[in-house]
Amino acid sequence: MGGASTTGGGDPTEGGSRARGVARRVVLLSIGDELLAGDIVDTNAPWLATLCAERGHRVVAQATTGDRVDEIERAAHRARDDGDLLLITGGLGPTADDLTRDGVAFAFGLALEERPELIDEQVARLKGRVLTPGARRQAEMPVGARVLSNPRGTAPGFMVQVDQLTVAVMPGVPSEMKAMALALFDEIIGQGELQPPRRLQAAGLSESEAGHRLGELMDPAAAGCRVGITVSLGRMTITVRGEHAAAMDAAADEAARRLGDAVYSRTKQTLAECCVSLLTERGLTVSCAESCTGGLLAGAITEVPGSSVVFKQGAVTYANEIKEALLGVPAELLAQWGAVSEPVALAMAEGQLRVSGADVALAVTGIAGPGGGSAEKPVGTVYFALADSAGSVARMVSWPGSREDIRGRSVNLALDLLRRRLQG
């Protein structure tokens, strides 16, 4: 069974109890051939890394391995050298390639046993349907393991204590893993002693301009902590990491001062969430008229819980004749300036404001590519407009990137235009 020195299943509750107030050195292990092949993107590891940081623990290593017992065994053994908390996701389902429990048991010399209470749960959930051998396998746990309940799925997780290493194994389905991980940290692992990072969310600045404004704050020797910038599709996260709360708070406050109205949140709030919150506070409604973004802007807003109070209507007006028929964009305007132009963007926003009866309307029209560009209007040219009772404003950008990037950045720029208007 791998020849590992082990205390057996141990008492995982005892291991968790000792961890309260202690910063754990965490190793993340994602399991699945589909991850190695690139068939799907691993979103579990980044989410867990953020959770660990917020709970005062340090991620020291991260790995991905395939659905083979020997590969899982080797990866689990490496974790013993790197950390004292191993978080594993994936491979707990009912199919033949779900071998995580086998790999963990083999790595640490633990036998697997069928847990009658888990069989009873499976039978109750099936409501008279046949319990398949695969589903029955989900009731197998390493001897001495603590069961981690799964309120959103059928595969329970488990936790074992092996010498000084706590091993927690969770499903790979993100919604199931997240619910289980939150309960794990709340009830067992606890809050570590490390300072959680401070974060600022910003938009409307380039990375170079933000770096210029932050200046010496990005020098750890000067700031007494580490200040970094991450950019994604026009949104920016400024993260402050360190060991001393006072220095981190001071750096975050100074960064917010220097970046000014580019900062829209000091939490993990998204731009869409910020806009919905501002609209709700002011008792206003919004509508969208979209061309190149194809409904992504309306989708971003309506993805926010509670957006039904503030969102009135979305119109995807791809074709020129639809811009004319639905929004009242004059045909001569389209003929003179073309669909991708400031006059048409303004007419789309004003038309949507009139048609929908909303308090504010946004419009987006552009060339997302990969074809359709010209020397005068290359791929990446996008016009934005906003209309409300105070009047209309427009903006044009031209940026490189894939179709996906251009559309994503366009959504964020339109949201930032709305955010700034609402904040005056």
Outline the secondary-structure elements.
Blueprint: H1 12-19, E1 25-31, H2 33-36, H3 44-54, E2 58-65, H4 69-82, E3 85-89, H5 100-107, E4 112-114, H6 116-126, H7 133-137, E5 140-142, E6 146-148, E7 157-162, E8 165-170, H8 174-189, E9 198-203, H9 207-214, H10 220-223, E10 226-232, E11 235-241, H11 245-259, E12 263-265, H12 271-282, E13 286-290, H13 296-302, E14 311-316, H14 320-327, H15 331-337, H16 342-356, E15 360-366, E16 381-388, E17 391-398, H17 403-422
Give a nutshell description of this structure:
With 424 residues, the protein is of the alpha/beta class.
Distance between the termini: 66 Å
What would you report as the Rg, rounded to the nearest angstrom? 26 Å
Number of strands: 17
Largest sheet geometry: 6 strands, mixed
Poorly predicted segments = 1-20
Mean pLDDT: 93
Q: How many alpha or pi helices?
A: 17
Q: Beta-strand level of the residues, as a percent range?
A: 15-25%
Write structural notes for this entry.
Helix 3 (44-54) packs parallel to helix 8 (174-189), helix 4 (69-82) packs across helix 5 (100-107) and helix 12 runs parallel beside helix 17 (403-422). Helices cover 41% and strands 23% of the residues. The chain has helices spanning 12-19, 33-36, 44-54, 69-82, 100-107, 116-126, 133-137, 174-189, 207-214, 220-223, 245-259, 271-282, 296-302, 320-327, 331-337, 342-356, 403-422; strands at 25-31, 58-65, 85-89, 112-114, 140-142, 146-148, 157-162, 165-170, 198-203, 226-232, 235-241, 263-265, 286-290, 311-316, 360-366, 381-388, 391-398. The radius of gyration is 26 Å and the shape is globular. The protein starts with 11 loop residues before the first helix and ends with a helix. It contains 17 helices and 17 strands. Strand 10 (226-232) and strand 11 (235-241) form a beta hairpin. The longest helix is centred in the last third of the chain and has 20 residues, at 403-422. Mean pLDDT is 93; it is low at 1-20. By secondary structure, the protein is of the alpha/beta class. The chain has a six-stranded mixed β-sheet, with helices on both faces. A five-stranded mixed β-sheet has the order 14-13-15-16-17, with helices on both faces.
